[in-house]
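Supplementary notes for students who missed Thursday's class. We covered one full example, reproduced here. Read the sequence, then the structure, then the short commentary at the end.
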Amino acid sequence: MKKKERRKDDRIDFSGVRTYPLKNRKSKVSIREFGRPYRGQDRIAPFIDSLPDILAAKDLKAVIEAVVQAHRKKRPIIVGMGAHLTKVGLNPILIDLMEHGVISAMAVNGAVIIHDYELALAGKTSEDVEEQLGSGAFGMAEETGRDLNEAIIKGVQQGLGIGAAVGQWLNHSDAPNKKFSLLAAADRLDIPVTVHVAVGTDIIHMHPSVSGAALGEGSLLDFKRLCAVVARLEDGVYLNIGSAVILPEVFLKALTLVRNLGHTVDRFTTVNLDFIQQYRPLTNVVRRPTRNGGKGYSITGHHEIMVPLLAAGIIERIRRSS
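Structure (token representation):
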């Protein structure tokens, strides 16, 4: 029997997609609601010291100490994160940690660059999915799809991964709120931000300007860049915050790859910080990677409370020990 010839019309055509201006879209998150870096002097550290050395309080102290020691030894401190951190107003706190030299690399999923870009351009993000989905308008903000796909394509042509491409694009743009952008700050500070994409999960994949070749090549370049940081993770810290699947899987693959290539990465600290503890972060971040001599911690709590608390404790400890 002859193999059935594949028809050319069995793939949907994106050319008729209808978009609208981002400024016209109602968004649930505004930079006016964002958190601010803690600026107190010796107020948080005594409070944290006063917590009992039991269970989660003991682990919180241990994580702060691990980050401070890694910072002191100039070892990598990598944050793997999902977009929820950006959507609950934590970009200023994360940027402050970058500026203090605490965060030395970030690994993010594809949603992060979308919300980060929209904040930089419009000062707002996070559309009402239920309201937009019925009419097919969900994800169809014109600028988000057009600009991010253009940045990724042009960046890959220059040999850049997605994180560097978008950060560079933002810093060369006239986006009025770029001071709130993680990617713009990382580009300014020369801190690697790697973007790990699952094709079809992000709204920019629905736009006519999307390039599968650029997404794939850019994400692979970023994976290689992350592996270069993980190769130096001995005595460092990896924090997974708000990613239940993508980043735990990426981190595990990066770790086994660098060990396969002969790098010693055994003694380091891993942390999963989320409001729900799930299988992959617990297994692929906290337990499996640290069996050769490291230490893994699970801390449960809302990001908008726990991340500022953790950051404030780290900054104060660094100030006190310097």
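Commentary. The longest helix spans residues 212-230. The chain has a mean pLDDT of 93. If anything here is unclear, bring it to office hours.
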